[in-house]
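Hello support,

Our group uses your service weekly, and this is the first time we've seen a run hang past the timeout. The protein is SDR family NAD(P)-dependent oxidoreductase. I'm not sure whether the cause is the sequence or the server load. Input pasted verbatim:
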Amino acid sequence: MAERFAIITGASTGIGFELASLAARNGYDILVVADEPLIEAAAADFRQYGHGVDALEADLSSPEGVDKLLAATNGRTIDLLCANAGRGLGHAFLDQAVDDWRAVVETNITGTAYLLQKVLKDMVARNDGKVLVTGSIAGYIPGAFQAVYNGTKAFIDSFVAALQNEIKDADGVTITNLMPGPTDTEFFARGDMLDTDVGTDPHKDDPAKVAADGWDALMDGKAAVVSGWKNKLQSAVANVTPNAVLAEQHRKMAEPGTADD
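Update from on-call engineer: The timeout came from a worker crash unrelated to the input. Re-ran successfully.
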């Protein structure tokens, strides 16, 4: 058993998979979770690094799912949390089923907030621990044809910054916000966005590079990191660009049927 223990959510593929690999390579026992059976295959891959790996299939969109995850720790102290689980959804908001957009809100906001509240209470009490939250530069941009997702990421980006201030006296605890741009993961297929420019863009960021940027910032105790120079530029420009302009720009990337235009 390693001295350090980490939880990585959304770890079956993409950025979460790469974060779990980094944790295992860096000497952590890990508990990995996702809402699909593929998490078991991912766990088998992580075991090559010689540390303890437990896997759990759970839906983290509800407090019950988060409680299931925390029960799977068997009371072990959580030294590191990568709160990476998230859900996307494309197409016009008026065309989306209520259950579909609610799942985005409940996964990205409700489940994440509840998990952070539970884990951070213990970390702050002992004044020790590290948390990485996967936000997004999407939180800076009104997301036409991805409105609910971008709105949830705006919440996360703001929420993390507020928490950082609230716990600033617990100097042994750090929270880092990882803000990637479009990344080459299953996100766009799962969000039904393969008929959009952004979904079919062959130049999306490498999830391994995004995870490495987040990991380095986490280990350095940084408040936030935007992964990729293009995304750094986009997030900076977003701060001085009118919302109507940003929304129109996003429309061109995310409107269904634009992939071949």
